[in-house]
Structures are given as C-alpha cells and as structure tokens.
C-alpha cells in the first residue's frame, strides 16, 4: 500500500461517509470492526449520510458510535471511496461512500442502534472477504495503520 494521501471529497445526493474502525491488539495483528446492515444482514462498515454542521470524518465517527458504540480517534482524510448499491435496490450507480480510518479506543455499552445489528471484529483478510464491494475489499486488504502517521 502506498502512503496514505488525501482524497478529494464531494458531497451531495448519493454520497455517504463510512468509518474503517480498527484496533491493534497486543501481540496480535490489526482487527477491523464490521456491523450488519439492518435490512439484509450483510457485513458493512458503519456508514451514513452527511450531517449538517459536521465534517465528513466527524459524520463517519458519529455513525460508528450510533451503529456500533465505537469511540476513538478518527482521521480527517479518506482512505478511499467505493461505490455501492443501496439495499432497497433504488440506488444509482453513482452512490458512493468515502471511508475514514477510526482507531477504536472504547466501545460504549449504550448506543442508538444497540440490538439492531450484529457487531464483530475480523482480521483484515476475513473482513475483506465478507464485504461485497470490490473497491472496499481492496481498501480493507491493503489497510496498514502504521501508514496513517506517515500520511
């Protein structure tokens, strides 16, 4: 993976912000947190729509908290973007999400969507296998938190 670089972001209809929630365990490799979508139950990173008064990375962090109880340090640059099809099948081919790295420091016991989704930690390899979108698979597989400091 090349050093992390800032990616030009757009906002507007069909643009969401996602969080690549990760942790580095002592003596273990990096783990990626995924949640299930409420409608289909497939594994996805926490994501949501832009929020008035919040930057894209702060909106991604807010969604991670609401969907998984995640608290931590979110970075102000996207690792990339990926296209997706909405669960209801109505999405346009241009629907996309920018994904921001978020180092998980704590998991809350109470949060908005508790009980509505499954939440689980995976190795990057397993997480990449579980998500559907090819570009998201690549972002997860190539993610290296050591490069965040160099970016």
Task: Report on this structure.
By secondary structure, the protein is an alpha+beta fold. The protein has one domain: Alpha-Beta Complex (Nucleoside Triphosphate Pyrophosphohydrolase). Helices cover 23% and strands 30% of the residues. The chain has four helices and eight strands, in the order E-E-E-E-H-E-E-E-E-H-H-H. Strands 1, 2, 3, 4, 5, 6, 7 and 8 form an eight-stranded mixed β-sheet that branches.
Under CATH at level 1, the class stands as: Alpha Beta
CATH superfamily: Nucleoside Triphosphate Pyrophosphohydrolase
Q: Roughly how many Å apart are the termini?
A: 12 Å
The total count of helices amounts to 4
Any idea what the radius of gyration is? 14 Å
Q: Kindly state the number of beta strands.
A: 8
Shape: globular
Low-confidence stretches: 1-9
What count of domains describes the coordinates? 1
**SS content category:** alpha+beta
Please give the largest β-sheet.
Answer: 8 strands, mixed
As a percent range, the share of strand residues is 25-35%
CATH architecture: Alpha-Beta Complex
The percent of residues in helical segments reads 10-25%
How would you name the oligomeric state of the polypeptide chains in this document?
single chain
What's the helix-strand series? EEEEHEEEEHHH
CATH fold category name = Nucleoside Triphosphate Pyrophosphohydrolase
Integer average pLDDT: 87
